[in-house]
Amino acid sequence: MHEKKITNVQMIMREGEVEYAVLPWADYQALLRATGQGGEALEAPERPAVTPSLAQLVALREAQNMSQEQLARAVGISPSYLEMIETGERQPDSAIRRALARALGIADWEGNS
């Protein structure tokens, strides 16, 4: 039996514990086949048309392994201002929303025009 090593796994942490493991689709399919749960190639699910809300900002940033400082610098704001956005203390204007979306590789923010 040929064993394929999965090396491109991203761990998403919450409160110091691993909550999710994210792996490439091809590795997921191989894992299913190896456990006898997927004889045929599975199709990738359709992406939802829903855009994320600002309440998901921390999870999106952490999923990309970015620190607050890294994201703040990429957007052109201070880390303390980003922290206020993440906690809901401040609502960013549309330019900062667009910059956050661009830095995180998402289409746009919910409610953004």
How would you sum up this structure, described in words?
This protein is mainly α. It has 2 domains: 1-45, no CATH class; 54-104, 434 Repressor (Amino-terminal Domain), CATH 1.10.260. The chain is built from 5 helices and 2 strands, in the order ββααααα. It has helices at residues 25-34, 57-63, 68-75, 79-87, 94-104, and strands at residues 10-14, 17-22. A two-stranded antiparallel sheet has the order 1-2. Strand 1 and strand 2 form a beta hairpin. The N and C termini lie far apart (53 Å). The mean pLDDT is 80.
Give me the secondary-structure topology.
Layout: E1 10-14, E2 17-22, H1 25-34, H2 57-63, H3 68-75, H4 79-87, H5 94-104
Question: pLDDT under 50 segments (min length 5)?
Answer: none
* Beta-strand segment tally: 2
Rg from alpha-carbon coordinates: 18 Å
Give the structural class: mainly alpha
Percent in strands? 5-15%
Could you give the order of strands across the largest sheet? 1-2
Oligomer: single chain
H-E order: EEHHHHH
How many distinct domains? 2
CATH topology of the largest domain, anyone? Answer: 434 Repressor (Amino-terminal Domain)
- Number of helical runs? 5
Shape: elongated
Provide the CATH superfamily of the largest domain: lambda repressor-like DNA-binding domains
Arithmetic mean pLDDT: 80
InterPro entries: Cro/C1-type_HTH (IPR001387), Lambda_DNA-bd_dom_sf (IPR010982)
Pfam family, one: HTH_3
Domain HTH cro/C1-type: 57-109
GO molecular function, one term: DNA binding
